[in-house]
Every structure is written in C-alpha cells, then in structure tokens.
Design brief:
The protein is an alpha/beta fold. It has 15 helices and 20 strands. The chain folds into 4 domains: 137 residues, Alpha-D-Glucose-1,6-Bisphosphate, subunit A, domain 3 (Alpha-D-Glucose-1,6-Bisphosphate, Chain A, domain 3, 3-Layer(aba) Sandwich); 103 residues, Alpha-D-Glucose-1,6-Bisphosphate, subunit A, domain 3 (Alpha-D-Glucose-1,6-Bisphosphate, Chain A, domain 3, 3-Layer(aba) Sandwich), CATH 3.40.120; 93 residues, 3-Layer(aba) Sandwich (Alpha-D-Glucose-1,6-Bisphosphate, Chain A, domain 3); 84 residues, TATA-Binding Protein (2-Layer Sandwich). Strand 10 and strand 11 form a beta hairpin. The radius of gyration is 22 Å and the shape is globular. The two termini are 33 Å apart. Its cofactor is Mg(2+).
Amino acid sequence: MPRLFGTFGIRRVANEVLTPEMATKLALSFATLIGGESVVVGRDARKTSEMLYNAVVAGLCSAGCQVVELGVTATPALQWACRQWQMWGAMVTASHNPPEWNGIKFMEKSGKGLDREKEVEVERIFFGETFRRASWFEIRQETVKRDIRWDYIAAIMSRVDVAAIRRRNFRVALDCANGAPSLITPYLLSEMGCRVVTLNAHPDGNFPGRNPEPTPENLRDLVTLIRHGDFDLGFAQDGDGDRLIVITEKGEFVPGDLSVSLVAKELAQRPIPGPIVTTVATTHILQEIAKATNREVITTAVGDLVVAKALQEKGGIFGCEENGGMIFPDFVWGRDGAMAAAFILHILANSGKPLSELLQELPPYYQVKKKVTIDPEKRDAVLAAVDEATKKEKNRITIDGFKVVFDDGSWVLVRPSGTEPLIRVFAEAKDRERAEALVAEYLALIEKAQK
C-alpha cells in the first residue's frame, strides 16, 4: 500500500496531485476513522487553500461530522482549539513549502498530529474506499463558524509576564511571510505593548514578499530593516505559523539551535520536573543545560510529531527542533511560533539584557550544516558506506541516520532526506575548525561511495 503521509500530514502539488477530489477522499477517510465525530477545520492563506478547505469540509460532512470552521488561522491556533474543545482537527496547509504546494494535517483531540498507526488506517480506508457515509438525515445542515484569534492570543498572554514586557516597550520587526500568522502575531505583540513594524503582514497566497520558509536568504529584507533601524529584535515566521526565527538587535540571524536553547535554559531553571525532548539533529547545548539542571535529554528522530509524542509519553517540559520549532507541552502539542515569540520577549523583559548578550551566555558550540545531492540509485551504497565507517565508533546513534558523538563533545550526523535525493551532513564542536573537518570527512566519504 502506498504511503500518503510525510513527517506531518500530506503534502503534494495542489490541483495536480492534491486535487479537491483527493482532499474530499482524505477527509472522508479521516472521518471514517473517527466514526463521524466533531472536527475543527482551518486553513492557511495559500491560493489553493480555500478550494481544498471546502473539499475537506464536504468530505467530513458527508461522513456525518459536525464541522467547526475557523477559516484562515495558524496551525498552532487550530491545535490549541482541538485541545481546548477536545475535538479532532484538520488543517489545510503546506507550512513552509513553495506556493504551488498544499497539504492537509489531521489532528488528535489533544491537538497532536496523528500517530503512525492512525495514519496507516486512514491510508487503508483511502485506497480501499471503505468510507463511512451518513444517511441524509444524519448530515448536519450547517457548519459552525468560530473566530478564536483573540481567545488564542489571550491564552498565550496568560503564560508570560505581560507587565514586564510592557515596561520594556520593545520595538520589534516582524515578517509574517504573507501567511496565516499575519492575522495573529502582529496583534499579539501589540497587545503586549510592543511597537511593531511589519513586513509581509497581509495574507497573500502568491507570497509576494518572500518564500515562506524562514531561511537566511529569504530574510534579507528583515535583516536589512533591523540593521538600519532601531529595533530590540526581529521575528520571522513561516506560512502556517508553527515555526519562529529570531534576529538580534544587531541584525544577526539566530540559528534555530540557539533560540531553542535560550528558551530551554529558562524553562529548565524552573522547579518543574521532566526532561527536554529534541531530535538527533539539534545542538548539544541542550545536553549541557540539562546536566546543569539535573535533567535528561530525550533524543528522537527528526520531526515535530515524534518530538510531541515523546513529550507526552515522558512528561517533558519542552520540545524543540534545530529549525527553530518549539513545543510548549502545557499549551499546544505542536510547534507554536506565536507562543515562542511571546516567551522570548518574556525572557528579554525579565533579564534586562539585549538578545545578543543572552545568546553569548549560552555554552559555545559551532555548527556546520551541508547537504549533497546523490544519485538515487546509489543511495543504499552511500548509506552502507557511512554505516561501515561509523560502526567502529563507541558512541553511535542510529535513530535517524548515523550520528557519532566523540569524547571531546563534538558530533557528526549523516541523515538521508525522506523526500528528496539528498544526504544532510551536520557537525557541531567547540571550535569551528573541528566541525568543518568532520563535515568535510563525511562529504568525501559520500562522494567516494558514489563512484
């Protein structure tokens, strides 16, 4: 049976692969799995999202579900609603993918994405077309329409020191990527007393301002604005608002590893039990933070779904990924860019220090990240070569690719992409030369294995 789901949800090129017909069948399959229970539905601001959203609503209604429509909203806002109302969820979004893509994320009643077992069942129903069809008198005549924006904003504000943030009167530059966060994050920051200057803060599915993925090359306008203005920091989000990237007051791009470490350090110092949960690709700064606060770091495969699942199972205090994704388990069982922005302002307000100084206080590590395109037919040979080269190492992790941790605290990770003919090589060390040497060593190994 073919696999439909990726690391979180289903993403395809819209109206070529992910058509309205496919979206309706997927919604019917999900509705069949949950026995026609109530579902809260939202969408991002992509050009094709309303079309697919309507198809999803139709499929859910056909199976007898009561549908609560949120319209355009951020993914974490919908996940918050699922948890508050104990309702299943469906979000039409392709997150940070290019404009021609779209997707559907299905949620548990907790707001977490579906476990793989439920994904497999949705796939079985989809391909077997064993749909639950409600009789005409079971179908709801109307959907319920709700605007949860201000409830969600109020819930975020209740978890941070708003009074301290207001006293600081932060000046913040915010890039919303012309996505769904445009309807939430500017208002959240303003409500907390920030003076906000926005870029790309109107929803537009053409993404005229920039590509929705918040990478350094896509955030040049935001960096330029901060460097030539008087700002305390900058924030950038992706198309559906689940990720956050931070820019310092000096206009320096902050790698996700550092921003998540800043938040982890604050939470780890609180008198609450539980481990930090992260992926094999994330910085070992977290290991030092955990050691200093008598905690454990739980390591998972890459993907926010597996991080969220481990958080639930282990009672974790914080979950994060190296791309800047942050999960606050007492709030939303998924990455939440708006909550992350509020919490970083909370840290700044209570420290009285600029962001660049707080980052300097983190343990010093240097990361080098590379990716190399490979011949798909030689993928197995490349991975076999990496496997053989790392077997001799005493501290090897094979959760997601091949990771080796050395006695000096440095590490290297070789991980194949699940969707593209790519191999990613990450390394981290206390000095840049060591990290660069590790990456170079394994890039050379990959090149040799392809010959």
